[in-house]
Amino acid sequence: QSDTRKKLLELFAEANGEFLSGQKISERLGCSRAAVWKHIEELRKEGFELEAVRRLGYRIVSTPDKVTANEIQLGLKTETLGHTIHFFEEVDSTQRIAAKLAYEGAPEGTLVVAEEQKAGRGRLDRKWFSPKGTGIWMSLILRPPIPPQRAPQLTLLVAVAISQAIQEVTGLVPDIKWPNDILLHGKKGVGILTELQADPDRVHSVIVGIGINVNQTAEQFPEDIRAIATSLAIEKGERIKRAPLIQEILLRIERLYKQYLAHGFRSIKLLWEGYAVSIGKPVTARTLGGTIRGIARGITEDGLLILEDEEQNTHYIHSADIQL
Ligand code: BT5
Questions:
Q1: What pLDDT shows up at residue 62?
Q2: How far is the CA of 223 from the centre of ligand 1 (A)?
Q3: If I label 31, which of 71, 133, 179, 277 is the partner at 20 to 30 A Cα–Cα?
Q4: Distance 303 CA to ligand 1 centre (A)
Q5: 2 phi and psi, to 5 degrees?
Q6: Which atom from ligand 1 is nearest to the alpha carbon of 120?
Q7: Count of CB atoms situated within 10 Å of the CB of 105
């Protein structure tokens, strides 16, 4: 993704669907008319539909449902998140690539996104089904100045941001199931995987992995998860463009993240509780240490789940699978 291309897309975003003359583009980009034409042709190859009219110039008619850097950056309103994007047609896992980039010093806000993952991961090395072109499979690098114990808060923050974005873009109202699932009408549409690079007292980077089923049909899910999984398109009844949803998600994460760094987790916690399904209800929590049945009482300031068992003992749970 060259800087010129990025500037060109910014110009089109500013133009808001109006024509831009070749002359103006070449002046603003500081390149020849012939070079402008070459960039336009490249955009067309990527699936952008561009209209060219003599004396008027060029305008964008439609953008493809792709998740390339160009697609995501055209009209992106964030200050830092998503300003560097590594796009891949196919990867093993965006999580692995982002971890490597973070280790090598990639700046906060770097995004790794793929059309398809061959080895998408969930927690505890479970598989995350990530078929080509129908979902959002991406990993975001954050570098919060916090101790590692506070990292679970970020999973919750991101869950709120994604829920807000889904609501904004589709009108669907998602439910959050602690810690990392977002449900649509009771089925899982989104999974979040937060991984850390940290010292005992300081986080170096948080890799936030986000998987969203966007345009799959029910038949496109493998049989073993068909009963528990869903997509935005299934619930909404129409296809949804992925790039604008990614833009909205990045914007929402950025807003909440700033609020979090400035004022702590308190206000995020309130928002989270607004979307949470399990609070006040009986749940079964399967942890690595065993299974606990009880009433979910809420979350702590650190983002742990508070569970009260049948003997009224209170458990604070770091990580578990919750059954409602
Ligand atoms: C998660 O794990 O929900 C975290 C998923 C994170 C995926 C993103 S995609 C981008 C980034 N790169 C990666 O490699 N991963 C991240 P967990 O709570 O452990 O749930 C995993 C379970 O969800 C599986 O065991 C299946 O039962 C189910 N599952 C697998 N694929 C699914 C899908 N596409 N939709 C809904 N459920 C799915």
A1: 85
A2: 15
A3: 71
A4: 21
A5: -80, 160
A6: 14
A7: 9
